[in-house]
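Hi R.,

Here's the chain you asked about this morning:
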Amino acid sequence: MTKCYVQIAGGIGNVIQSIPFIKECGKYYDEVYGLWTRQDFTHELFTAVAPMIQHLFTKGKIYDRIIPSDGQFYSTPIEQPARGTFKMWDEPEYAKWFTAWDMPKPQVFDTSMNWLSALDTKHDVVVWAGCKPIWKSKRWPYWDELCNMYEDIAIVGLPGEGDNIPDHVIDYRGTISLQDTASLISMANFYVGNEGGTSHLAAAVGTRTYIIYGASDNVKNFPPERKGLYRIALNLPCQPCQFTPDRGFSAGDGCPDLSCLKYLTANIVKSYIDKSQESYSKI
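And here is the predicted structure, written out as tokens:
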């Protein structure tokens, strides 16, 4: 009887990017278990994520204890083995899992999960204006302007994610579970968000998804390709600067100019959405 343990850590995006690898482990091991042991994966985050991924593990088991010695152990976030071995991000994180651990890649990188909920509410647009507070270089500043361009629009995330949100926007921030958030996004006509965990959630549930990129490495951080998944960015010569010393995420507040976000206006984003909607409907 062979076993493996997959560490669940990082943020929501890291967890979702690891799902294809967890699923493939089931082909090579008789039993697959989860572990959440890293200090940056809080109890609150585990409580939010666990119901959506427990079905991936044998008997739904995700342990909170030291690493067992009776099976293979795969650590996360993937940055540690990838940086130590490859020095660069030349493929997406969901694929790097397989390269880092020398496991055959699947033909389809399946990030689907158990996100069903009792929430049965539909909005035309759902937006997410958040990301970790330390990553200012991910936070697009014009959510208020974009929200004013749509009538039936809702915002999700944590309290305080998004400034000056107009009064007509239906506010779910801090009031619904992660599963309810996934359900709400899945029923929307489309979703728009910063690059981060909730946007990876949107990509996983299959709704038409637009992700805004600033400093983020689009090779590392883009979800598995599918119909209706779009990256919105200015593509400046300095993008991405995520791993550039004294720029990107390593600079505290990020790039002093934040040109990649400052000059990506609400009109540009809206225009991109409108044009892609025309081609999307014809596919």
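One quick note: The chain has two domains: 3-100, 125-282.

Cheers,
M.
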